[in-house]
Structures are given as C-alpha cells and as structure tokens.
Amino acid sequence: MAEIGYLALLFALLVTLYSIIAYILGIKNDNKRLLASARGGVLSLAVLTTVASGSLVYLLLTSDFSVEYVAHYTSSYLPPVYKAAAFWAGNAGSLLLWLWVLAVIAAIVAYSRPKRGQEEEMLPYVSMILMIVALFFTYLVNFVANPFEPAAKYYADGYGLNPLLQNPGMIIHPTTLYIGYVGFTVPYAYAMTALILRKTGDAWIKVTRRWTLFAWLFLSIGIIYGAQWAYVELGWGGYWAWDPVENASLLPWLTGTAFLHSVMIQERKGMLKVWNIMLILVTFLLTIFGTFLTRSGILQSVHAFGDSNLGTYFLVFMGALLAVSLFLALDRLPLLRDQNQFESVLSKESSFLLNNLLLVGSAFAVFFGTMYPLISEAVTGDKVSVQAPFFNTVNVPIGIVLVALIGVCPLIAWKRATLRNLVVNFLVPFIATVIFAVAAYLYGIRHLAALVSYTVSAFVVFTIILEVYHGVRVRRKMTGEGLLTAFGRLFTRNRRRYGGYLVHLAVVMMVVGITGSSVYKVEGTASLDKGESMQVGDYTLTFDEGLKATIEPHKAVIYTDLVVSKGDQALGRLRTAKEAHHNAESLITEVGVKGGLREDLFVILAGFSERDYRAVLEGRPSQDPVTFKVFVNPLVAWFWLGEYVLILGTLFAMWPGRRLKAPVTAGGMKR
Amino acid sequence: MSKKTKITLGVLVILAALGYLMVSGFSQFSAYYLTIEEVLAKGDSIYGDPLRVSGKVIGDSVQWDPEKVLLKFKVQENGKTLSVVHNGVRPDNFDDGQGVILEGTLREDGVFQADSILVQCPSKYEAMEEGNDSG
C-alpha cells in the first residue's frame, strides 16, 4: 500500500508539471485541445492525491509500521478515529493534507462552468496559478517530507499519538483550518489573473466572492475550534494565549476579514483596487506563513512541532510569490486607478476604510509582536519578546472600535451622510444604548473595558434589530405581506446583507463571551486534605473521596469526583483527572468543566504527591493534600455559541439565491 | 480643506493612534530573553525588569509546598545555576533535566521570581520529528 501512495505522489508531481506546461503553451498558442488536456492534468492531480491520501489512511488504520510516519504517530491500540486523524499529526501528512485540499479545490475551479467572456478567459490562468502553488507542495511531499518513507528500523509497535492530540478537536481543527488556508488560494489566483490579463475591474471579485466566504468560514471555524480545544485540553484555564501558532492562524483571518469588506467597495464604487489586490496577496502569503510557522518551529511555542529544514523551502517560496506578485501589481499600477473618490469623511465608504485600517493595523501589530524575538535579535542583538499583555493592550481598543463600527456602518449613507441623516438614524439606537450603559453601570459593571465593550455590543444589537424592524415595515407597506412572511422574505431576498448581519451578531456574541471570561474570571488554588472544601466565587468544592485510579490498557487515570455546590444549591459531582499515558512522559490534565450560558466552573487537578500517585495506582487510599486549581469563567459559552451563529450567517450569505434582476440596494436606511 | 486632505488626515490620525498603541505596548510589556549566564552577569542592572529565562530543572533542588502552593527550585545551563521561586502549582513533568522557560523578574536577593513556567514539550515527538526530517 505504501508503494501505491509513493507512486501516486510521484505521478502527482509529473502531472502537475505537465499541466503547468500545457497551460502555458495552450494559453500562448490559444490551443483549446492543449488547454483541455491541461485541465485533465488538474483532475488527475486531484485523483492522485486522493489515492495517496486514501493509501495513507489505509496504512494508518491497518497500523503498517513498515512506514516511518505510521510508526511515529500511531500505535496499534489507538482508537481507529485517531489512527486516521494521525494523518495530519506530523509535517509530511499535514503537507499532504494541504496538497490534497488544494488539488480538489483546483479541480472544482477548473471544471466550474464560467460565464462566457471574461470569466472563461480567466479560467486557464487561474488553474495554472493554482497548479504552480500545488507544484511547491507536490515537491515537498515527494522530496522533503514524504509520508510514505519506509521505516528506518523495525517497529514492533508505533510510538502512538501525542495524548494531547487525542481529542475530537484533532479531527475538526486542523482540517477546517487547512481548508480555510487553502481556500484563499482561489481569490489570490483570480487576482493575479486579473493583473496578468489587465482586467482590473470587479470581475475577479464577483467570481471569487463565494470562494472567499468559503475560505473565511472554514478559517473562522478552525480558529474558534482550536481555541475550544486548547480550553479543554491544555488545562490552563483559558482558550487563547497569543501563542505564535495561534497568532499565525489569526493573521490571515484579520486580513481576510478586511478583504471581505473592502471588495464590497470595489464592487459598488470601483474604488480601493490596489488595496484589494494587496489584501488578497497578503492574506494568501499569510496562510503560507501560518503553515511555515507551525511547521518549521522557528518560534518557541506551546504547540510542539519540531525544527526542520522545511522552513527554508517555505521562505524561498514565499519570497518568490511576493516578488512575482508585487512585480505584476506594480507593472499594472496605472490600470488600477479608482473610478471614484471618497466624497465625504462621513460616509459608508469611509467607515469601510476605517474597518480595513483597523483590521490590517491589528494584523500588523500581531505579526510584529509574534516576530519580535527574531526582529529584535536581528536589529539589536538582544532577543526581546512580548507576551499576552502586549497583544491585549493593542487589540482590545482596536476590537472595541471595530465592534462599534459594525453598529455605525448600517446607519450611515453611501457617498455622503448629512448631519440630519445621522441624527435621525442614530437617535433611537443612541438613546437605547445610553439607557443600557446606565443600567449596566447600576447593575455593577464598573470595569471600564467591560462597560465599554458591553455598551458597544448592545449598540450593535440595537442597530441590527432596528434595521430588521425597518426592513420588515417597509416590505409590508410595499407588498402588504403578513409579518412573518415579510420577515422571512426580507432575509431570503437579501441574503448577503442579512447573512452579514447574522455574522455581525455572532461577532457580538463572541465579544460578550471574551469580555466576560477575561474581565470577570475568578480563580483560586488550594491544597485540600480529604474532607476539606475550597471556595471559589460562589462555588464550594469538597474533596471528600480522596484520589482514585482506573487502569486501562494504555493509560492510567488518576481522578477524584469533587462535590460541587453553588450557594445552597447542590450541583452534584465533577470529575477532574490526570492521565498517565504509556507513550508520554508527562501526565496529561483532564479538566472538569461544568458549564452553562452564565459561566463555566473549570477545575484542574493540579498536583498530588509522588507517594499518593504510587498508592492509588496500587489501590491504596491517598493521604497527602491534593492541589486543585479552579477557575470560574463567566460567559465563555457565548464564544462557542457565536461560532454556530457565524457559520449559519456565512452559509446564509453564500447560499445561491434567486438571481435578482435589479441589484439590491444595500444602502443606509431609507425613509 | 479638500475632501482628500480630510480623508488623508483621518487616516494619519488612525495610523498614529495604532502606532501609539504598539509603541506603548512594547515599552510596557517587552521582556528580554536571557541565558542564566547573562542574568547572573547583569545582576543588579536588571532587578525588576520583565525577563524570560530558559534552563534545565535540577531535580534534587525542587521543593514543592502544597499547603502554601509554593514551588522552589533551581535551573541550570552551561554550569551556571539560578534559584527560582514560583507562587503556583508544580507543573506536570517537572523532573530533572526538564527544559523550562521562566517568565518573571530577578529579585534583589538574586532569586528569580517566576510568574509563569513554560514546560518545553518534553515528549519524544519533537526529537522524532527532527530525526524524521533529516532523513
């Protein structure tokens, strides 16, 4: 089976090379048959990488330890689902996953039915660019990190999968993140094609709108799911540590989000052309950079991935991409002149501009902060790093202004907002927001950042409600529909707009969760003797049973079930544990979480004595004090809930709706 | 003032604000990466500055007081040792020779007050990965 995978990858390289050459010659000589054959090459690559991936999964599932990769990342006892997920546990498999996703996407693009004219003309170029990117990864999986490399020695059993990776997160997070990363290659390829063909209108943006949303959606899911995974698995009480690898996934999301917004301005006003090209270029490069950071190990990170010489290849590839893309953009610069200019400081256009500046500014700060150890070492010789407080200081204010903008934007008119228009539109949400702020203050929210964050969030919710209310009212007046019909049709007839509002609502839900869990987090640490209790926030936890252990074939679980109560209310027992895996030197913390919409109780079994460890494994009772670390994280669940609303909203906006004859006006509120 | 100037001014103001945020963030929160040797050599010039120091745990020196939730230990690198206290939990896998990254400050008594201890991933996965890639 390994031979099949090996050969499939080798053929994949040949096919990719052939396809690129066929595209170049086909385009040059306008040879339709050659172009069709090149397109066949794209499909072949998708088939070959599917075969390679299939054979890797087969090898993993059957525990074929004659393959180095299988022996490194799995063992025979591993549950099948994690055997399969070990696909992307290491560099070689991750790169194959990347290539596979890219190949499938490239095939979908190549076989899509373009509209006659410009779209049709662009397609061969787009496919060619996708294949050039694929070539890089095909080369890597063949010659630098080949997952089908035979084992260097005989393995009776494999090393097994890192216990931290044995979590449902391992199945969802890497795949969605990679689909998101790879998805941005499509708009990038179209942007470059637009430059090559000197078709710098908005055709490339229109064709790629769904691809961009698709990539953005998966990237969002990947990031949030990664946070959720870190929350339950890493056991330090939080979900985001501004770790280099986390930052690496956030960077393309920030610029991608900026791109998602700024293309609307080009679509409507023919402005920001250069900016959009640059944004998609940067976003695409950042997806490659993200892979590079995670896979090369140049920065210290809590996520353990080894050093490797992969880094050099990535650097060269990114350098080449940057050079060629920038050359193209500079060469075509005169064609990228905007058709319109900003007419007023107070306009929807300028609110989009501000949104973009903030998102890109945030990305720049995150990038700079992440790379600071390398930059400072190169410049001053001292290695200086910044930690979470830096990222929070910079990003919290940016985030708050961004959220406020979400609320402001729908209320401002295109082109030029008059003072009167502003007063009329803002009056109701403004008054509602002020009332909310006063109420929140009286309720006891005195922390400045929290008060501002909640007030701004409330403002956004008010404006969205108002927008929907006005939309329904206008619709009912015009069509005479019933309330529910009007409400439903308002949404389904303006999918982009109301899908967007849903996503904005999701962002607000997440902001509420993030604010609550970071500002009002309560924590306590205590060492308890058997029978003792500890108090954290309103919760009382009693350690009444002592430590216990269960011994399974490949791991031992040391645990205790604490009695939990909140005030007078008994909440039952909560298990918190540490696991000793046969293939890991360290113990793995399995936190106990009791959660609801209001807050999470998060309990870590932080430590016990060596003597007790041996005692409970031998079935004797524990006697020393056991240390627990407890967090009360308010509103965390809203962060995860927001994720689902975000998915819903994005899908709603992407869903192919009825083709409307007249363009839907997405302007400010009309009276 | 023309529209263009106004927009440009607005953009500049925002960029300046972003720049200010970054600069003040860096000046408040940057920490020097130092080796133990450098920490000892710099001595009193770095008291109280935020630092990041890496070293290997000396197994015999680890004193863990669960009652007070206080951890004392020594780290060493290239023959130089540094005493550390940490008001927190003893991390998992805190054994002799374990590589750790400490974040905190050097106290005037020469003891390093660690606010956080980052245990470098101990497992063989990393070593294996390196082996894999060279092959």
Explain what the structure shows.
- The complex is a heterodimer of chains A (671) and B (135).
- Chain A has helices spanning 2-28, 32-61, 68-73, 80-85, 91-110, 118-144, 168-183, 185-196, 203-233, 244-269, 273-296, 310-331, 348-380, 388-408, 419-443, 448-479, 483-493, 495-519, 610-617, 636-654; strands at residues 383-386, 522-528, 533-536, 539-542, 548-552, 555-566, 569-581, 587-590, 592-595, 599-607, 626-634.
- Chain A is an alpha+beta fold.
- Among the domains of chain A are: 1-161; 395-519 and 639-654, no CATH class; 522-634.
- In chain A, the strands form two sheets. In chain A, strands 3, 4, 5, 6, 7 and 8 form a six-stranded antiparallel beta sheet that branches. A four-stranded antiparallel beta sheet of chain A has the order 2-11-10-9, covered by helices on one side.
- In chain A, β5 and β6 form a beta hairpin.
- The radius of gyration of chain A is 27 Å and the shape is globular.
- The model of chain A is unreliable at 301-307 and 660-671 (pLDDT under 50).
- With 135 residues, chain B is of the alpha+beta class.
- Chain B has two domains: 1-30; 31-134, Nucleic acid-binding proteins (OB fold (Dihydrolipoamide Acetyltransferase, E2P)), CATH 2.40.50.140.
- Chain B is 33% helix and 34% strand.
- Chain B contains three helices and seven strands.
- Chain B has helices at 3-29, 36-42, 124-134, and strands spanning 30-34, 51-57, 63-65, 70-77, 80-86, 99-106, 112-119.
- The N and C termini of chain B lie far apart (66 Å).
- The relative contact order of chain B is 0.14.
- The interface between A and B is large, with 69 and 50 residues.
- β1 (383-386) of chain A pairs antiparallel with β1 (30-34) of chain B, so a sheet runs across the interface.
